[in-house]
């Protein structure tokens, strides 16, 4: 790990710590800073992952960081200024656009270095939206969570390439390790999900919150096509919260019932034990309708030695090697997805195992939490050195 000052204090600002890749990365980096002897603060509304942050030695600074109300954002800026001064914060790291405004104002007011992570490829259909997105590029350095995202940031905001660093999101290899997941954990999940003992169908897992662009509806369409072809060898498991999107969940349930697929598709809800979830499946799918900026649900299963079927766009082109670690499929094309599910079945258990092992070897090398944290702390050290050089010149 790079050397940081002995009194280094990091303040990360993120809307909430409920669930998701950006939230997990926030906690991982906080843990790495504490392990280096520094202090790690997170300004956020809070959420179910807050206890994990505190268990790792980080500290929560609770505020309505998720708000897009300008008056609340101004109030957050004042709270952050007070926090930065009181805790002698060394560097501010923003992880989302709305709180980035408050964080940037507070960093400028206190003369504190500021970096931001571009966790997604934000759409900009107007100059106003482009201006809103550009807040993430106004600091000392921008971190992009994939080469795909980095290229987008440079092109979209016309900023110097050396100001944007690609750091792929990391996966905790001690947690995502097949050898430490007992058979009892896998069995408990299968039982909870209603997967019968000795289920012979290809168990396909789509992990992700229930939102239209994640592609659950597309997979229901693909399953309808397989049924129309007379194929009945896939069991599709949809794992994820609706996070208040009751209408979309009801729509999926109705589509499954209308197609007579209740026995072939299961909505299993939120899952806390994702390592066991991937082992409970034979194959994972990541059918996002829009390009993923990184897509941990295409990487985590590979680390668990499961091949992945992913949409052929965005960062999946970096994380999945077609024919070696999984398959890439035309986005949004239900026929193509039905074909891909058939292909995964035709590959057979031995073929899928070979692909899974290749996937695991590659993903462990490229996408570990340790590699991500080390690269992030190097960015912090680089920014602090540049500030010192500025002051002395």
Task: Outline the structure in words.
The protein has 393 residues and is of the alpha/beta class. It has 14 helices and 13 strands. The protein has helices at 21-35, 50-55, 70-87, 97-110, 127-133, 147-157, 183-192, 216-228, 246-258, 274-280, 296-303, 316-319, 334-366, 369-392; strands at 9-13, 39-44, 59-62, 91-94, 114-118, 141-144, 164-166, 202-207, 234-239, 265-269, 283-286, 308-311, 326-329. The protein starts with 8 loop residues before the first strand and ends with a helix. The mean pLDDT is 93.
Keywords, separated by commas or semicolons:
six-stranded parallel β-sheet; single chain; seven-stranded parallel β-sheet; 14 helices; about 15% strand; about 400 residues; about 45% helix; elongated
Strand order of the largest sheet: 3-2-1-4-5-6-7
Strand element count? 13
Shape: elongated
Low-confidence segments? none
For the largest beta-sheet, the strand count, sense and barrel status come to:
7 strands, parallel
Helix content: 40-55%
| End-to-end CA span | 28 Å
**SSE ordering:** EHEHEHEHEHEHEHEHEHEHEHEHEHH
Structural class call reads alpha/beta
Averaged pLDDT, please? 93
Total helical segments: 14
């Amino acid at each position: 790990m790079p050397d940081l000052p002995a009194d280094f204090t990091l303040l990360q600002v993120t809307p909430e710590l409920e669930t998701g890749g950006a939230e997990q990365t926030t906690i991982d980096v906080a843990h790495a800073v504490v392990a280096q002897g520094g202090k790690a603060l997170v300004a956020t509304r809070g959420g179910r992952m807050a206890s994990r942050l505190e268990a790792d030695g980080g500290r929560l600074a609770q505020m309505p960081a998720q708000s897009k109300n300008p008056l609340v954002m101004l109030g957050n800026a004042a709270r952050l200024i007070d926090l930065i001064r009181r805790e002698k914060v060394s560097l501010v790291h923003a992880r989302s656009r709305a709180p980035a405004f408050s964080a940037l104002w507070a960093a400028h007011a206190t003369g504190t270095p500021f970096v931001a992570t571009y966790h997604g490829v934000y759409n900009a259909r107007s100059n106003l939206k482009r201006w809103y997105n550009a807040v993430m590029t106004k600091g000392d350095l921008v971190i992009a969570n994939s080469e795909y995202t980095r290229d987008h940031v440079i092109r979209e905001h016309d900023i110097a390439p050396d100001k944007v660093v690609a750091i792929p999101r990391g996966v905790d290899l001690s947690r995502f390790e097949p050898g430490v997941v007992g058979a009892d954990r896998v069995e408990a999940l299968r039982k909870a999900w209603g997967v019968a003992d000795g289920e012979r169908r290809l168990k396909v897992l789509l992990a992700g919150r229930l939102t239209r662009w994640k592609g659950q509806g597309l997979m229901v369409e693909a399953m309808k096509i397989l049924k129309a072809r007379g194929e009945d060898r896939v069991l599709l498991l949809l794992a994820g919260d609706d996070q208040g999107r009751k209408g979309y969940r009801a729509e999926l349930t109705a589509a499954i019932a209308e197609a007579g697929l209740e026995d072939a598709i299961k909505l299993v809800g939120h899952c806390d034990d994702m390592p066991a979830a991937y082992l409970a499946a034979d194959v994972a799918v990541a059918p996002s309708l829009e390009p993923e900026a990184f897509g941990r649900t295409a990487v985590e299963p590979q680390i668990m030695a499961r091949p992945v079927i992913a949409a052929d766009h965005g960062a999946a082109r970096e994380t999945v090697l077609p024919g070696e670690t999984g398959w890439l499929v035309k986005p949004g094309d239900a026929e193509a997805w039905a074909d891909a599910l058939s292909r995964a079945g035709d590959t057979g258990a031995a073929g899928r195992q070979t692909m899974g092992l290749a996937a695991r070897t590659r993903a462990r090398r490229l996408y570990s939490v340790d590699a991500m944290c080390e690269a992030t702390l190097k960015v912090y050290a680089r920014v602090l050195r540049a500030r010192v050089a500025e002051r002395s010149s």
